[in-house]
């Protein structure tokens, strides 16, 4: 499978993008480690006074709005605006967008100020961003799992509304941009039993965007390989009768295996 993605992976491993992550404390360490395992690196900085400066030394920006507060959201706008000025790709992970009015209002402000290269979200978050969600929120988990047709329709509407590539995740993922859409299958359901499965996927999308990949290519590559990683981690953990903790750890081994290439002298 990875040979399909050799060019994009070679490019990422040559550039070794540094991603400015405005992320959430729940998954911050996993996000930093998954980027290192894949071949890139992370810098987490969310003080508004330094956000623009840190953005300028990175190849991509990840705006993960889990655990939001007013100052963090201000830093997201500053970083995103600077990235737009410098032509640095911005990936949005609107964690729990449908969970509170505050989140949705702040996300509206953010998306009005910053042009995203890619939005990676679950199905409830997609509906919230489209203002078609008024059900009981699943919090940061999705409160909705649609049919493949409905999920594809959701992804198409999101790409149209936000004029960027999108990856709407769930039991299967749908990547969409402009008129095209692709469904990614496989993977392992245990990915939804650890926290941060989506946060890490968003980070991998940002990493590939930072390797000068087209956001559509970045999303379908990260999405497909992340599913392969989950399958591999599932197989490996079961060999030693490992449970969900072993699965979590094996995901990092899998990302090294599927994404990382050592480069001479490094
Ligand atoms: N039932 C499933 N089978 C296979 N893969 C799944 C399943 N559910 C989720 N995934 C995968 O898990 C990853 C996380 O997707 P999910 O939709 O759970 O994101 P999320 O809710 O934003 O996650 P988090 O907030 O925990 O970071 C994606 O790669 C997704 O495709
Ligand atoms: C559990 C949780 N709460 C806010 S962010 C987060 C991690 C999953 O996005």
Structural summary, described in words:
The protein is of the alpha/beta class. It has a single domain, classed as Ribokinase (UDP-N-acetylmuramoyl-L-alanine:D-glutamate ligase). 51% of the residues lie in helices and 14% in strands. The chain contains 10 helices and 8 strands. The protein has helices at 6-15, 28-38, 48-56, 70-86, 101-113, 123-129, 148-162, 197-209, 215-239, 244-259; strands at 18-22, 41-44, 60-64, 90-93, 118-122, 165-169, 173-177, 180-184. An 8-stranded mixed beta sheet has the order 2-1-3-4-5-6-7-8, with helices on both faces. The protein is globular, with a radius of gyration of 17 Å.
Architecture blueprint of SSEs:
Elements: H1 6-15, E1 18-22, H2 28-38, E2 41-44, H3 48-56, E3 60-64, H4 70-86, E4 90-93, H5 101-113, E5 118-122, H6 123-129, H7 148-162, E6 165-169, E7 173-177, E8 180-184, H8 197-209, H9 215-239, H10 244-259
Parallel strand pairs: 1-2, 1-3, 3-4, 4-5, 5-6
Antiparallel strand pairs: 6-7, 7-8
Helix pairs in contact: 2-8, 2-10, 3-4, 4-5, 6-7, 8-9, 9-10
Bound molecules: adenosine-5'-triphosphate (ATP) and 2-(4-methyl-thiazol-5-yl)-ethanol (TZE).
Adenosine-5'-triphosphate binds at residues 95, 122, 140-142, 169-171, 173, 187-189, 191-192, 195-199, 201, 226.
InterPro entries: Hyethyz_kinase, Ribokinase-like
Pfam families: HK
EC number: 2.7.1.50
């Amino acid at each position: 499978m990875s040979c399909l993605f050799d060019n994009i992976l070679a490019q990422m491993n040559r550039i070794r993008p540094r991603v400015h992550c405005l992320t959430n404390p729940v998954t911050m360490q996993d996000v930093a480690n998954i980027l290192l395992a894949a071949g890139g690196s992370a810098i987490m900085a969310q003080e508004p006074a330094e956000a623009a400066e840190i953005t300028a030394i990175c190849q991509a920006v990840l705006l993960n709005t889990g655990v939001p507060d007013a100052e963090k959201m201000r830093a997201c706008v500053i970083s995103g605006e600077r990235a737009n000025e410098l032509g640095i790709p911005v990936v949005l992970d609107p964690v729990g967008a449908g969970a509170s009015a505050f989140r949705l209002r702040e996300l509206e402000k953010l998306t009005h100020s910053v042009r995203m290269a890619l939005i990676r979200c679950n199905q409830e978050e997609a509906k919230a961003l489209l203002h078609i969600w008024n059900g009981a929120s699943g919090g940061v988990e999705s409160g909705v799992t649609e049919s493949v047709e409905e999920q594809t329709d959701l992804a198409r509407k999101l790409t149209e509304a936000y004029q960027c590539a999108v990856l709407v995740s769930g039991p299967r993922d749908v990547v969409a941009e402009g008129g095209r859409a692709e469904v990614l299958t496989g993977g392992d359901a245990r990915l939804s039993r650890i926290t941060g499965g989506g946060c890490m996927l968003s980070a991998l999308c940002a990493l590939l965007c930072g390797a000068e990949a087209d956001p559509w290519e970045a999303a379908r590559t990260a999405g497909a390989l992340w599913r392969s990683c989950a399958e591999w981690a599932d197989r490996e953990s079961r060999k030693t009768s490992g449970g969900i903790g072993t699965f979590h750890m094996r995901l990092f081994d899998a990302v090294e295996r599927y994404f990382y290439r050592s480069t001479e002298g490094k």
